[in-house]
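Record 1 of the preview.
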Amino acid sequence: MDRFSGTIDVHTHYVPRGWPDLGADAPWLRLDSERDAMIMVGSSEFRRIGADCWDAEIRLADMDADGVRAQVVSPTPVFFSYDAPVGEATKIARIFNDLALEICEPGGGRLIPFCQVPLQDPDAACAELDRAVDSGHAGVEIGNHVGDRDLDSAGVVQFLQHAASRGVPVFVHPWDMPDSPRLDRWMARWITGMPAETHLSIMAMILGGVFDQVPEDLRICFAHGGGSFAFWLGRLENAWHKRSDLIATSERPPSAYVNRFSVDSVVFDPVALRALVDTLGASQVMVGSDYPYPLGERPVGEVVRRAKHLTESEVADLTVRNAQRFLGVDDRPTDG
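->
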């Protein structure tokens, strides 16, 4: 293997092969064959998936092929259930978190489970985080908003403070993007909506004062390269200084917070990756693939492989060391 072998992939998803009936409007899985299924939301088709969503043997073979030593395995956001009653959302989180442990168990430590929580209720979210982490989960994935409440809402801040107190890493994934006739073409909700959602939520954490309220050792990472944030940081910085009457709601200018969060590398183009590294620093970017979904990156880490501007040390940061720091570990299995 080459210098990219041993990569830690911080952004992948799972879907169980099935789960108990959650109700008429809840997600369920229509198995069309042993290796092919459709995620259903009520009577509507949401996404076609394959056995690589639940079969550890397939995942491990793909990891070996791509030189991935370990993989963070997070929920698929459609199952967050933030709009459900808290009791129902807690039940769903418990079911999926327990099934995630079963999916990851055959990996021998190479498949690292991240849980989900009922984020609409901070007390219930903190309780489920504790239960899941005590059961074997290494971190938590949350959506980037709960209805109209962004990541600077009091309940989310309470949850982030609790995650920091437990030393639990947080992975933020965009979800529930706005819908309109203009966004229903060309997968625009995923191609433009997801980056915009992530940009907005990083901005909310900065201007909403979240980084001023949570401990500096909170480990939080945003999916898809942080959306469009890095490209437009200069515009945000300019507005903070020139329209301080509306924008300067954080203790410091936006650029002062870029070392408080990480992003993954799923940007597909070395030019975009260079913008991330130049803006956030090589210590704040980690390889992520969005495996096993079609808009993900295969082979994993290809954008890093093609980025000739990265030094050997920066490659080691992006592929391994930053992820180890995010996960709070010194090392992970090296075979693979």
